[in-house]
Write a structure and sequence with these properties.
Blueprint (H helix, E strand, L loop, with lengths): L1 H6 L3 E6 L6 E11 L2 E11 H52 L14 H35 L11 H15 L1
Antiparallel strand pairs: 1-2, 2-3
Length: 174
């Protein structure tokens, strides 16, 4: 404190306590008003108290970092699942489409590109089901026509020529 009074500057360091013989950290700062020295403010803490506070602060920072990392991992996992589960569902849907199960519907309700993709996959499934039904109808009609007795026109071609013509037509279609 004497140094702070004599030099009129802030002083810091370590010293022995007055009433107890333990080491203390201190800061002494002169107080001035209108250029006149009014006194010195001195604050001190024992090294043991300082180390205890520093240790507490250190563990608090470590704990906060660990908690933050844990929360980040949980949030990341949830976010990854929110993307991977719909993609897996769409993959299985595409596999079913590839195996000929048309007409199924995807029900993914998210307001992002995955929802738009699900809508387009549903449209594709409906269109493939429609095309498959048209193909089956066409094949049934052609098969029926090939088995139906033929009425021959009056141009006097033989039935064998008409039969060969219809068979060639059916082969060209498939």
């Amino acid at each position: 404190m004497r140094e702070a009074l004599q030099n009129q500057q802030m002083v810091q360091g370590t010293a022995k306590g007055v009433l107890a013989n333990d080491d203390r950290l201190y800061v002494a700062h002169p107080i001035r008003r209108n250029g006149q020295l009014l006194g010195v403010l001195r604050m001190s803490v024992t090294l043991e108290q300082f180390q205890r506070q520093f240790s507490f602060l250190w563990w608090m920072v470590i704990g906060t970092l660990l908690l933050t990392m844990l929360l980040c991992a949980v949030i990341s996992d949830r976010l990854a699942r929110s993307f991977s589960i719909p993609i897996q569902t769409m993959r299985n849907f595409a596999i079913r489409l590839g195996s000929g199960q048309f007409g199924d519907k995807l029900s993914i309700r998210q307001s992002n590109e995955l929802d738009e993709l699900a809508i387009e996959l549903n449209r594709m499934s409906e269109r493939l089901a429609s095309l498959d039904q048209e193909r089956r109808t066409f094949l049934a009609n052609v098969s029926h026509e090939l088995r139906t007795p033929i009425k021959y026109p009056s141009d006097r071609r033989s039935p064998a020529k008409w039969s060969r013509g219809r068979t060639a037509l059916a082969r060209s279609l498939f």
